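On clarity, I found the account of how folds are encoded harder to follow than it need be. Since the whole study asks how a given chain folds, the encoding of that fold should be made plain. For the editor and my fellow referees, an illustration may be useful. An entry of this sort, consisting of the sequence and the corresponding backbone structure tokens, reads as follows:

:::
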Amino acid sequence: MLLGIHHVAIICSDYEKSKHFYVTILGLSVLAEHYREARNSYKLDLQLGDKSQIELFSFDTPPKRPSYPEACGLRHLAFRVASIETAIEHLHSHHITVEPVRIDEYTGRKFTFFSDPDGLPLELYEL
């Protein structure tokens, strides 16, 4: 029935800062950008290499998302990468802090975490 994930929606607190992070630093492609005057809100449609999408929304004063301690609900968003070391080097070149690399005890694959500008936990998972 379910064929895959079409998109993940993210609400940010600083639209320009988050747009820069997801487009310039992470390299997602912009599909469309809309300003919704009635809501004083932007909606930015971004695409990853596998055609999955992230919808980036801005709203006036959204409440903070609890991340630590971990709260019930969506835990994090994970991205597949070919080389975790290359991805980490890229993030470090943009002054983004990355946790130490760990090994998945079930698959033997490398993974690590970092955060978006609002503290949303993001994971890199090596293929």
About this structure: The longest strand covers residues 29-36. Residues 75 and 121 are 8 Å apart (CA to CA).
